[in-house]
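Subject: complex prediction, re-run

Hi both,

The earlier run crashed halfway through, so I resubmitted it with identical inputs.
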Amino acid sequence: MKSSKIFTKGVLDVLPLLIPVVPFGLIIGVIGIELGFSPLMVYATSLIVFSGSAQIVFFQLISGGASPIVTLTSVGVTNSRHLLYGAVLSEHLESLSTAWKIFLSYFLVDQSFALSNRFFKENRSLENKHYYLLGSGFTLWLTWQISSLVGIFLGAIVPEELGLAFAIPLTFLSLIIHEFRKPDHLLVIFVSGFLAILFYEIPFKAYIIAASVGALIVAFIITNIKLKKK
Amino acid sequence: MNWILVFISGLITYFLRYSMISLIKKDMLSERTKTLLGYVPSAVFPALIFPAVLLENSGLFVSYNDPKIIAILIAMFVGYFSKKIIATILSGLISYWIIIFLL
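This time it finished cleanly. Structure:
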């Protein structure tokens, strides 16, 4: 398959996932300005950090007078799940040059990870499959840059009454919906969800990684039982 | 100072994305680890889904008949049978809009 074709497939597959990215990007722009940051700095977070949840944490903590250490720890803990994403995709990206790895890593976000993980598994032998991560990641990136810029200068032009924030959990649900047919995955899914609710109030937004690690421990036990049976 | 924090936050986020991709080599991963890593989406995404549906911004539970709960159950049902990303998202969003605007 031609690289451009794989890139385009990544672009097309990510389109439905953009529904909440646009209003979320707008909100980032609006919140940053409202909390007193300059337009240039608000946009710089979209370009340099490029991570919605971490950007919100960043604005809220700094404007609330948190210390640099607390702010940076929160950003790190909030985004620590990307370590797992990298570990999962490493197997498929290993043969790439260092330059490609440096470039592609910038585009590794939740949605591009989930889509690429599936595409890579189904197209293991495809030599240029990394163009899929580039296509989906670049589209998310471009949408994020434009929508946060629009939010900074025009405000939240999508009315809040539409409740598009609800599309965020919906897109994440859609990315794991094919796992609902597998009982072992279903167990891991509900353990993770339960732990996230349980740990919601712990500091640094650590509930995401705490619930993920807790659910992976259950997955580890399942893996051991499965391998023993073989 | 804030500018320095923007750049360090960017560096932290970037290295969380890059480090595992650059460090892990194929033969470092046992069959067991690979199987375990296959559970990563199922272990991470529910931590982003459940609180967003079940909790208010204040951290309190929404009521059992909240539009989001009904809509996500419909999305799960449609997604389970259609296995389509777009059908999952649209069915959830449209049923949410029907509940909050029409009912």
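The mean pLDDT of chain A is 95.

- K.
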